[in-house]
């Protein structure tokens, strides 16, 4: 991670779970880290969990990534403060348990697509434009899911797997675009199994079944970022030992 010290990272969905663990890990690793979230006060509170000499490296930014104007304003703020972004972690995601075929589910469907897919694409676009303008060999990491590679036989997944399959496809689409543009910007998909986060109902109470902790995914992010410039990690799948999904 030495080459990223003093560089700028943006993490979406930074108020809890994987996002919260990631902003702390990146700040501790020496990166100037901007945590984007709707609940911006929760990102501010994370500073108290960092060593005193690290807290100034974490910046909280109000942003709802389902709103393009929020995304543009957030990236503008990062540019004005630090010149631009070097690393983007697309972590923000939501799930809804109403069925795809249930009546009156339009808003739930749109919430999931706008957050998990459209927001990710727009944040990636803005990060790429910043990197290209400054000739930065940056890194974009998508927090995907095992559901982006396999649909489980459940009736309450809504369009969540569809959006994660979309992330899998977008990762490869972006990789081709980055290569054809002549850049050395990397893009990585990280696909966890069950993680103890707010997206899983009652995950805090799960004690008997295998489950990952947010810090496990943050460690994988640091691994992917820490690879040499010649190495591009395409996909990381992480499951807890004993998981049967």
Present the secondary structure layout.
Blueprint: E1 8-12, H1 17-28, E2 32-37, H2 40-46, E3 58-62, H3 68-82, E4 87-90, H4 106-133, E5 139-143, H5 160-180, E6 186-192, H6 214-225, E7 235-238
Parallel strand pairs: 1-2, 1-4, 2-3, 4-5, 5-6, 6-7
Helix pairs in contact: 1-6, 3-4, 4-5
Q: Can you describe what's shown?
A:
The structure is a single chain. With 245 residues, the protein is α/β, with parallel strands linked by helices. It is built from six helices and seven strands. Strands 3-2-1-4-5-6-7 form a seven-stranded parallel sheet, sandwiched between helices. Helix 6 links the parallel strand 6 and strand 7 (235-238). Helix 1 (17-28) packs across helix 6 (214-225) and helix 4 (106-133) runs parallel beside helix 5. The radius of gyration is 17 Å and the shape is globular. The mean pLDDT is 95.
């Amino acid at each position: 991670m030495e080459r990223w010290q003093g560089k700028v990272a943006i993490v979406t969905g930074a108020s809890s779970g994987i996002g919260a663990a990631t902003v702390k890990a990146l700040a501790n690793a020496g990166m100037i880290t901007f945590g984007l979230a709707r609940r911006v006060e929760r990102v501010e509170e994370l500073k108290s969990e960092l060593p005193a000499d690290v807290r100034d490296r974490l910046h909280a930014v109000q942003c709802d990534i389902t709103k393009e104007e929020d995304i543009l304003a957030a990236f503008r703020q990062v540019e004005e403060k630090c010149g631009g972004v070097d690393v983007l972690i697309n972590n923000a995601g939501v799930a809804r348990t109403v069925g795809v075929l249930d009546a009156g589910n339009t808003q739930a469907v749109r919430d999931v697509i706008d957050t998990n897919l459209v927001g990710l694409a727009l944040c990636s676009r803005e990060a790429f434009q910043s990197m290209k303008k400054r000739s930065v060999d940056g890194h974009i990491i998508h927090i995907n899911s095992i559901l982006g590679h396999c649909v489980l036989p459940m009736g309450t997944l809504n369009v969540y797997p569809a959006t994660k399959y979309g992330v899998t496809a977008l990762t490869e689409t972006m990789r081709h675009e980055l290569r054809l543009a002549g850049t050395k910007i990397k893009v990585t998909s990280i696909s966890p199994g069950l993680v103890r986060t707010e997206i899983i109902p009652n995950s805090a109470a799960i004690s008997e079944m295998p489950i990952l902790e947010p810090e496990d995914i943050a460690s994988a992010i640091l691994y992917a970022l820490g690879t040499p410039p010649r190495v591009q990690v395409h996909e990381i799948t992480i499951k807890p030992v004993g998981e049967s999904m």
